[in-house]
Amino acid sequence: MENIYLLMLVALVVLAIADLVVGVSNDAVNFLNSAIGSKAISFKTIMIVASLGIFIGAVFSSGMMEVARKGIFMPGQFYFDEIMIIFMAVMITDILLLDFFNTLGMPTSTTVSIVFELLGAAVVMALIKVSASDTETLANLSNYINTEKATEIISGIFLSVVIAFTIGAIVQWLSRLVFSFEYEKKIKNFGALFGGVCLTAIGYFIFFKGLKGTPYYDSFKDVLSSQVLLVVGVSFVFWTLFSWLFMKIFKRSILIIVIAIGTFGLALAFSGNDLVNFIGVPMAAYHSYEAWAASGQAASTFSMEVLRTEVPAEPILLFISGGIMVLTLWFSKKARSVAETEIGLSRQGHGTEKFDPNMLSRAVVAGSTRLADGLRNILPVGTKRRISKSFAKPDEILVGDKSEEQPAFDMIRASINLTVAGVLISIATSYKLPLSTTYVTFMVAMGTSLADKAWGRESAVYRVAGVLKVIGGWFFTAFSAFSAAGILTYIIFLGKGPAIAILLLVAIGLLVRNYISHKNKAIEKADTSGLKKSESKTVQGIIAESADNISNVVSRSNKIFSDVLTGLSKQEKKKLKKSKKGVDKLEAEIEDLRDHIFFFIKSLDETSVRGSSFYIAILGHLTDIAQSLEYISKKSYKHVNNNHKPLRYNQITDLKEIDDTLSDLLSKIDKIFTEKKFEEISAIVASKEEILNNISEKIEKQVSRTRTEESSPKNTTLYFNILLETKELMNAIMNLMEEYNSSYKKV
């Protein structure tokens, strides 16, 4: 029986390594986003600075795994075999939950997940013990759970969300009021003071939070706690002088140093303190196993009171953990996905919105707009003018046609993000208040975004929806962590070794599936074969660039139309569903081009404005093509999915004839635009009436069949819908050809 616990310990070690990987992938967002979003320093430099912070923080971590050992439950109330079940359930749940959020690209809290997993697993194990006892009832549940500590941790974590958002918004608003968006001018005069304040706060944060628990901390902790004003004052003078000298000597903005040191500090604190979330449980399991093996007692009778003592982590394990975390930071694609979510929500300029608006986000934006208008009306005119001047954005932020390539926000906001997050975490640590570094850094970033008016009328409803979705995900984290860990605890309790083996196999399968899913999405995102935004500033260039998009749409339309008719004739639901997705992707790309019209028109030369009319007309025809394909594919899929009768043989034959004609036409058009033989477009346009007449004949034939031999209303309706929409598709294609031919001849 002893072997099973040794195997469980080995499994927990492997799970700890996997948890380090998924944990860093999620929490990298905490310290990378400000530097990446502002593009103050190169990406390689950011990664080097963050890697140093992570590794140093991990190696010098206190290793006091108190949350896993005694922060949530009373270890003395459980026996060794029960504790091992709890730890195994927690680790399996933690890996799957964090990987799920990473795959979605959503930041969540590793602290919240581990706390609620421990709570859920301990509660279920306590319920099992209570139900098996003749003397205990549900009222005795409090004997097993450290309710006071658990309540303190949970309330502190969620309270930090509101505080971080509010403080971030206030500090950013005041900073922008002073520096405005054209801060380069004022930073020359006030940069030394601003740098002194930020670097003092970040430096204090590094020493107080980031290096807490190191071998050297005891020598200066009394000074930090009892001589706060003296330490802060001396630091401020030093950093202010440093900032002034740096700007004078190197002629560079001190904000670069603030962002670099801030990134290092948050990375240091993350690995030094959140390491417990990844290896705390396996470490506690290892110490439990050591104590049990030395006791000689049975696993079902050995009390885990030993977990109440404080045992530091082994240095070699901290060294290995730091190495794994650094490697994950460099090679994890999911870490980039999570970072993109927060950067997208805080972007100052226009960009592709990741989230769709919902009823709640619309209500929040409408209410906030009315409140802002009301406050604005009571302010004096001079004050409003002063505020408006400070928050006026440069033209490149407003109308940049390559917003995705620009910094998401400026260095002032990046500095505030890092400074405020560091200060809040430092204050919470000094008062021994638990919080989630993910929640604090994310909500500070959202607060500064709001204050900076990054959520304007054009984007607010999307950004608010995204923030609400992320926050909703946090509550889902807590609920699912508690529930899943509890369920797995019960399953392992019933099934013992076989249950653990099955759960581990299921976990591996889910991790592999999520990896493949995320990889496929990344490949799809990196696919350069889609429609391209026009970057030309001349009429000739616009017409030439549009040829590539027309060729692309025509080629894809040809395949989609043929696949739909093939899937319909053979009743292949999978093929129809795939075609439907292909249409959705095509529509999304065309919609993206339409969203780009504003920037396209702004970028045109004065002599080339007439090119905008051509570009808009072309997009209109491409939209008509996509809408016709969407209608045909949707109706066909619905027919097969509802298990209606298949089309009759003569209907399939007629559709096949139309498909051959259309396929031949679209292939010719594709060739014309690929090889730039635009003089042949006239011949294509001349065939319009012949093709439309052919479709009309098919409609007349079906009318005759309906009166004499057809018996299926669904088939008849579908067939007419396809023929009529195919006529609309043909009209859209021919209108596109006529528009292009006319414009090409004018150039």
TrEMBL record:
It comes from Christiangramia forsetii (strain DSM 17595 / CGMCC 1.15422 / KT0803) (Gramella forsetii). Pfam families: PHO4. Its main location: membrane. It comes from the Bacteria. Keywords: Coiled coil, Membrane, Phosphate transport, Transmembrane, Transmembrane helix, Transport. One of its GO terms (cellular component) is membrane. It is a multi-pass membrane protein. The keyword Transcription regulation does not apply. GO terms for biological process: phosphate ion transmembrane transport. The keyword Nucleotide-binding does not apply. This is Phosphate transporter. It is found in: Membrane. Residues 569-596 form a coiled coil. Belongs to the inorganic phosphate transporter (PiT) (TC 2.A.20) family. The chain crosses the membrane at residues 6-29, 41-63, 83-102, 114-133, 153-175, 187-208, 228-247, 254-272, 313-331, 467-493, 499-516. InterPro entries: Phos_transporter (IPR001204). GO terms for molecular function: phosphate transmembrane transporter activity.
